[in-house]
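Putative ABC transport system ATP-binding protein, pasting as requested.
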Amino acid sequence: MASLVSTRNLTKTYQRGPEKIEVLHGIDLEIAKGDFIALMGPSGSGKSTLLNLIGGLDNPSSGEIEVGGERIDRMSAGQLSQWRSDHVGFVFQFYNLMPMLSAQRNVELPLLLTHLGAAQRKRNAEIALTLVGLADRRSHKPNELSGGQQQRVAIARAIVSDPTLLICDEPTGDLDRQSAEEILGLLQTLNREHDKTIVMVTHDPKAAEYASHTLHLDKGTLVEQVQHAA
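Structure tokens follow.
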């Protein structure tokens, strides 16, 4: 299967006063199109840093990142912003919904950056909410929804532009077990039935079991890859 994401000798270093802290050390990684990857490792191992680099939210200190045939490490800030808008959907632990907007209007937000008219934005949002099982809650505001339902809205917002890549940072970290399993099942469905490539950071081994592969990081280095049974 063709690679969607490739990194070569990827490093990330932060300056903290006079001290340089190298968070990632020479990461070589291949993620196939249609894969579902769980990134695991102890706190401070570089999981979220790697996720942010793959999603174009941060720039590497050195090395290469290629996504869908494009070298995103060479892009300017403006080019990277447009690339994220066109190709990446983000799901975070705390939903990041606008409290004064309905579910539908929250899902429409990424489409405001496109050429689509109001009627088509509404239609696309309705389709995304139907995919996540919340068509009947489209008029509800976040405070009228459970945590699991709010995360479904966040996933609908992430997929409404039909992105190539879904980036999920602890998407079940703020949910009870039942809600977490529902969200993980939804991500698995998006991967298997809608061919979404997903990279997910998690601390939860049970969450990682929903992925097709688990990559383990330790002290900024990839130390293990585990393939899960289908």
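Note for the archive: The beta strands are 3-16, 19-32, 36-40, 62-67, 70-71, 88-91, 165-169, 197-201, 213-218, 221-227.
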